Hints:
Blueprint: E1 19-24, E2 27-33, E3 36-38, E4 41-43, H1 67-82, E5 87-89, E6 99-102, E7 114-125, E8 128-133, E9 141-146, E10 149-155, E11 161-167, H2 169-181, H3 192-207
Antiparallel strand pairs: 1-2, 3-4, 5-6, 6-7, 7-10, 8-9, 10-11
Amino acid sequence: MDVARTFRACPEQSEGSGNTELKVGATVVARRPEARVDNGRRMIYPIVKYGQEVLEKPSAPVTLFDGNLEKLVADMFETMYAANGVGLAAPQIGISLKLCVIDASCGKDANSRIVLANPEVITMEGEQAEEEGCLSLPDFRAKTTRPLHATVRAQDIAGKEFNLSGEGLLARAFCHETDHLGGKLFISHLSRLKRDSIKRQIRRMIKAGEW
């Protein structure tokens, strides 16, 4: 998740090469390119952009809570911080799992790190309309209506179920990231006119080799 006033100002990054396999349980779920280094942080995965199928289909549930999942979560946090995001869903790195990470402090407070496996928004109250963006739709932002308060039910990194409530930016992040796990992006909440305008711009960028 990328909210314009809070998060996007990526520093220069240097490229690495090579790749390794990532497994969750016995299944290879991605081939991981070598990290790009950003001031000591390692951006383990490139961000998948809008137009890739993985972003527009429902993800599979997390069923194995093991060391491989812990490593994936750690890599997702590093990828999110390197991209100056406050939220990142597994489909955004090409992995179709119901898993997301959130840190509304942008890495400033370790206690703000949230891991949601198999999350579901169970209550929503109030309304807020703020500009919203997405790491998978770089440079596109629009005022998006979300609940002011939201509660999610999810499992933690060990598989333990819990409920968590948030308001403001955190409630927005809960909704934004769980949308990703259902194959939806924030533009699905915009008017058809605005959504079609963004899609046309992206098609032109793809044709020009700029996406």
